[in-house]
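Good day; I would like, with your permission, to put a structural problem before you. The record follows directly beneath this note:
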Amino acid sequence: MKKINIPVILGALALFTLGSCYEDEGDVTTLEENVTAIPVEATVSVNRDFTGDGDLIGLDVSISRAIDSTATLGVEVRIDDARGVNTFVELPAGQTSIFVQAVVPPGNAFAAEGITPIENMADAKVIGLVSNVPGEQYAISSNEVELDLYDRLPSVNRDAATILFDWTNPLANDLDMQLFYDDNGAFVNIANGFSSTRYEELSIGSDPVDFPDGDYLVFLSAFTANDTPIDYNVFYRTENGSNIVFDGLSTFTADEIAGGRIDAIITKTTDADGEVSFIVTLQ
């Protein structure tokens, strides 16, 4: 059984936040002999119950006691108990909760091949808590949050809203996605997803010239449809990277296949400091 000595690893990495792929079935913390480890309970929660290949997922982590010094917290996301990615963040002294954006293993062979996810295929938990005070050690215990696994989610872009459109039987059905900007009631075509292959992905960027503030309509349509109805998913990833808006599996009816449908309105706003935010209103 292999052991990973977290204090050594973190010292070498200068306590920067990172993600590293590995395969390991052993313990993740090696405690020094003759040092009593202080027990700490960690609780992990998420704002969505799914993830995907190479995803960035937000974890709300709380611990049962405050640490007097700055500490380093480690979380892990695993796929099928086989492949994992560790993410380390700095926990300020006295703080008992923190938001962690954790990396999901990329390139996994376990992801679903269709639009329905594999249930409970991934999990997330806290794996370690390391104090910066020599000789001060903590024995961490944590719950595990189980996540369903999709084969693909929108690309991570912290300066944009990204949208991914996926549907059933793409060899027989060629669906499209378009973005229209609402320019005082005149709808201007901004971008098109006409790839003729499975998946369409579009984004609304932060550039104020190419993508001015305002409302953007996400329009779905069928170029070729041999099935009726057609099930589909649309995922919306907003600017913080880990937040995804998803309304679950939807169905293209015969009327919508013929005429298309507006799936959502995305409102882009830029504040006085130049920070961009997006609000997704599903239709």
The chain has two helices and 20 strands. Confidence is low (pLDDT under 50) at residues 1-32.
